[in-house]
């Protein structure tokens, strides 16, 4: 079998796998829309006590807004505590946080820098609340978010719940594209929860049952992605993770390519290393949808992204070199043809168009889930065209780092 | 906005089967659509060939009636060179896409026959009407044994673009068409490709634009294309 044929088979296999996964998620959404899996929107007993932890490191500029949004939560004052843990900041984070201590709900602690998991555990040791949540110091919650999210804990099997995360005031082109990407994440979180397969409990406003977190052994460093590891540990222990899109949180996203690149390398690196740590779940029927399709697809998407990217770059470079060679050898410049006869209509291209159309459908579903609207943000075409070229950059860096276990930094 | 969602992770095999069936259906649609568009292209090529074929027949008939007509009624243009070039490009494109080899080869054979007929007709018209057509016969191979054929093809395309009245007849040396083999024998062309027949003389190997202009000074008598003239002025 020659190389071209092998490449064709790989392309078809990857396209089939990615379209299959997209269809699988879309059908789970449709299944839900047809009436299944709903949670009663009513709290039968008293509201649970909640501790929201704000782990912070050098976030003096944004932490004020974060704490203010927590204080504005529509939740009984005697049932809410806000624990700010300054993880050894060198800026005015502590000073800004201390200003809020006049409110009885706010407690502020300072500790030596040790990473986000140590800040979370510091708060875990100091609270007796039934639920513990996290809100990154660059995020702000909507006033009704907490009331919306606590309702899912009526089900005693639910160990954690994730919110609907939106981009806070997207300004740059990159943030606008992330705004689109976050709509896709809203859809994914929803579909994964509908399949009982959430494997990330993100930093902005995920809530946990405190007793279960203690039982499972608190937060770990987990390759700088403690939010993924905790979700995988909850899944391994057989508990449920719910998703509450109505619990809206707005988070600040990187505004430049280098900061976005650093953040995503950390996420992807952490995911890959945690996947290795929890490899026994992959393909394991005991973990249901999570082991059989969600985790394998999440890993495959990274390698598919890298393969398609490498393929596109290879053929673009080859074509450019050939054209330059030809012009040099013959003196004849290429001429663009707009004859529709030459429009490519190979099965591979048609499948790529179908896959992109499916992503668009998922974005519309994400928008419907997250905002109640119908059309995704205006930057969607840009996201669809450019993001598949951007993501492989951090995928590649993360794969290399994960292979050599280099570790990653937060900033 | 959607209500909260939670579910157990137990695999429901039906959802896997349904997703598989939908994906398989999408694949089948893509393959069917791709075949449909390719068929349309083949039909387009076939229609163009039919047009050219009927044009040739018409001119041949006209030529047979030449005794009763003046040369001015026929002129130097038999089949428009641009039509032939365009048809050749379309066939090359279809060939490069792979698949349907037999169908493409059959169309190529017919195309070669049309080229030969046009070539012969043009010579007859030229002889009767005392015209001096400028043409090149080009023999290539795409079996992977001719490293310079691709570049030679681009040079000839560039020349055709510069001189729309230049007639370039391109033949696949390995195409099993009797008339083509006869043409190869008449000009005694060896399998050392690319080969160009210019003014009844055979030239082997790659020849650039300037080489051909030197070999074929009659090119200077042809009208240049508007774009080429414009670019020269710049």
UniProtKB/TrEMBL annotation, chain A:
* Pfam families associated with the record: Glyco_tranf_2_3 (PF13641)
**UniProt keyword list:** Glycosyltransferase, Membrane, Transferase, Transmembrane, Transmembrane helix
Gene Ontology MF terms in the entry: glycosyltransferase activity
- Name the Gene3D superfamilies on file: Spore Coat Polysaccharide Biosynthesis Protein SpsA, Chain A
The organism named in the record is Candidatus Giovannonibacteria bacterium GW2011_GWA2_53_7
Task: Tell me which family the UniProt entry assigns to this protein.
Answer: Belongs to the glycosyltransferase 2 family.
Superkingdom as given in the UniProt entry: Bacteria
Can you tell me where the transmembrane regions are?
A: 12-30, 286-310, 347-370, 382-404
Full protein name: Glycosyltransferase involved in cell wall biogenesis
Upper taxonomic lineage: Bacteria, Candidatus Giovannoniibacteriota
Q: Known CDD domains for this protein?
A: CESA_like (cd06423)
Automatic annotation (TrEMBL), chain B:
Q: Which residues cross the membrane?
A: 13-33
> Origin, by domain of life?
Bacteria
Name recorded for this polypeptide = Thioredoxin-like fold domain-containing protein
Name its species: Candidatus Giovannonibacteria bacterium GW2011_GWA2_53_7
- This protein's UniProt keywords: Membrane, Transmembrane, Transmembrane helix
